[in-house]
Each structure stands twice: as C-alpha cells, then as structure tokens.
Amino acid sequence: MLLHIIARGKIARSPEAELVDRYAKRLTWPFRHTELPDTGGRVPPPAHTPCRQVLLDERGRLMSSEDFATLLGRWRDGGVRETRFLIGAADGHGDEARTNADLLLGFGAMTWPHLLVRAMLAEQLWRATSILAGHPYHRSG
C-alpha cells in the first residue's frame, strides 16, 4: 500500500526535511511526499484505488502507535492500495474535506507547525510499518 503525505507549504532544506527523508528511506512500503502551495493548487487524484484519506487535524482522533499500525495493516490487508495523509496550511482543512475524510487524526491537543507534523508523521509511518513487520524499533511498555 502506498503511503502518501500531501502537505501544504514548502519544506525546503531544513532539519524537518532531513527527518522526513530519514524515515522515508527506512520505509519498506511504497512512499510518496507531495507538496502543495499554501493556497491554491489542487490535491492530486489518488494514484491507486481503493484509497483512504486521513486528515491531520488538532481535533482529530488520538491513537496509540499500536492502534495506528493495526489500522494501516487492516486497510492494507483489506485491499486499500493508497493511504493519503493530508496536512493543511495554517488554517487547517475546510469542513468539506473533514466530512469526506476516512479519518481525522490528531497528534494531541497542542498545535504543531506543519513542518514538524510532517516529520512526526513520517516517523509514525515508519514505526507503524516496523510494528507490523515485527521489527524491534518499537518498544511498548
């Protein structure tokens, strides 16, 4: 299953970009990272179907890493060919996008800069796929 981060804004050369790249290189699942301008531009159509759309949102569902891995594994095993993770600009996502999403996912009640969210999401994708593969990277208490 393709894991596809679609984010508003440019990450350019930054410590956050290095983190995204570090975790992207570790992923054994197909991965894509698409950047859109802060305003305008269109979210590209899915490369593969069926597809799931996850919006990163401060009001989204909080999940443990294990639960996130289980969800991705269930989608993959159920025939989903692409999961898209959308990170909005400073104003987040509109009501229509929220309504059409398969999941609103939150990283806690705090507001995070979109560059850090990309890095944290890339790490959680690596963590989830390593959990599913039985890799020792993830250690739960």
What do you see in this structure?
- The protein is α/β, with parallel strands linked by helices and 141 residues long.
- The chain contains 4 helices and 5 strands.
- The chain has helices at residues 15-26, 65-77, 95-100, 114-132, and strands spanning 2-8, 31-36, 51-61, 82-87, 103-105.
- It has a 5-stranded parallel β-sheet.
- α1 (15-26) links the parallel β1 (2-8) and β2.
- α1 (15-26) packs parallel to α4 and α2 (65-77) packs across α4 (114-132).
- The radius of gyration is 14 Å and the shape is globular.
- The mean pLDDT is 92.
Total number of helices: 4
Between the first and last Cα atoms, what is the distance in angstroms?
28 Å
Strand order of the largest sheet: 2-1-4-3-5
Strand content: 15-25%
Number of strands: 5
Taking the sheet with the most strands, its summary is: 5 strands, parallel
Order of helices and strands: EHEEHEHEH
Into which percent range does the helicity of residues fall? 25-40%
Radius of gyration: 14 Å
Low-confidence stretches: none
Overall pLDDT confidence: 92
Choose one word for the global shape: globular
Helix/strand class: alpha/beta
Function: Specifically methylates the pseudouridine at position 1915 (m3Psi1915) in 23S rRNA.
Organism: Novosphingobium kalidii
Main location: cytoplasm
Catalytic activity: pseudouridine(1915) in 23S rRNA + S-adenosyl-L-methionine = N(3)-methylpseudouridine(1915) in 23S rRNA + S-adenosyl-L-homocysteine + H(+)
